[in-house]
Design brief:
- There is one protein chain.
- Helices cover 61% and strands 8% of the residues.
- By secondary structure, it is α+β, with helices and mostly antiparallel strands.
- A four-stranded mixed β-sheet has the order 2-1-3-4, with helices on both faces.
- Helix 7 (160-172) runs parallel beside helix 9 and helix 9 packs across helix 13 (266-278).
């Protein structure tokens, strides 16, 4: 190995292999004369910048100046783009020529690797804080839960679980316009996902429910005429607004059992929204789904 080759190997080790011990390194083999390489460069640079918090870095290798390195990787055409982690090539990204294609491939790779990232570190920090705030909200202290969620939002303002918790706490406090404003203020890429859907469902239910203080007359109306499904529906919504999820589930399912097509299936739709608000991973939700299935398939 010549001195120049040794220098090239040392530079590659320093700039590519060492960072790959904890990061996912995108290696771009390129050359100054290569038109497709120049067209791809802005895409690679933008995606690497967007994914920096996920632990992704970009390393560029000029094949004209680093012919020995290119030969070691058997580079036969350029651009060639690889992903390296812990010193090993783990993916060929060459076929990705657009931002969306490259991000899709990186997302798939990152799900399988223990890449160190600011995002993962932040997730580890806020996970117990969110769990504590959720428990407070479940215990019925919405004011204190909101305070917790807003403190966590100082660290991760657009985190879906934090946003969802803030919105649901505001809904529990009857501050529906404030909850709507939180959702409306989300960036487009943060306004999707199960947790945000859960928050929207809670807000939708609250807007459609009668005031909780009207519960007694609604109970009386539903009991006076079991065939009055609208009265039962109004009661179910009010029970949900009052935090009586078991009673609300019973009322919605009673309507489905009586007439599943009533009001274009409104009771089933609202029942599913109730499950979404509670959280689809909650064991209570699994039990209620089984109850619905028993009604629908018997």
């Amino acid at each position: 190995m010549t001195p120049d080759q040794k220098e090239a190997v040392e530079a590659f080790r320093r700039d590519v292999v060492e960072p790959s011990m904890s990061k996912l390194v995108i290696i771009d083999f390129w050359a100054e004369w290569c038109g497709p390489c120049k067209a791809l460069t802005p895409v690679l640079e933008k995606v690497a910048a967007d994914y920096a918090d996920k632990g992704v870095v970009l390393a560029k290798v000029d094949t004209d100046k680093n012919q020995f390195i290119a030969a070691q990787f058997q580079i036969k055409s350029i651009p060639t783009v690889y992903a390296m982690f812990q010193g090993q090539l783990i993916a060929d990204l060459t076929s990705a020529r657009t931002e969306s294609q490259l991000k899709a491939m990186l997302d798939q790779v990152l799900r399988q690797l223990p890449v160190e990232s600011a995002e993962a570190q932040q997730e580890a920090e806020i996970e117990p804080l969110v769990a504590a705030a959720e428990q407070i909200l479940q215990d019925g202290d919405a004011e204190r839960a909101l305070s917790y969620f807003e403190q966590i939002a100082d660290i991760a303002a657009d985190h879906p679980e934090v946003v969802s918790g803030r919105v649901r706490a505001l809904v529990a406090l009857g501050r529906l316009d404030d909850a709507e404003a939180v959702l409306a203020g989300l960036p487009e890429d943060a306004a999707k996902g199960a947790e945000i859907d859960r928050a929207r469902a809670a807000l939708d239910l609250a807007r459609s429910a009668p005031p909780a203080e009207d519960l007694a007359p609604l109970v009386a109306a539903a009991e006076a005429d079991p065939d009055n499904l609208q009265a039962r529906f109004d009661l179910a919504n009010a029970q949900m607004a009052a935090g009586q999820r078991d009673a609300a589930a019973d009322s919605f399912l009673a309507i489905v059992a009586k007439d599943r097509a009533w009001n274009d299936g409104a009771a089933r739709t609202q029942f599913l929204k109730l499950l979404e608000v509670v959280g689809l991973e909650d064991p209570w939700v699994s039990a209620q789904r089984r109850r619905l299935s028993a009604i629908l398939f018997t």
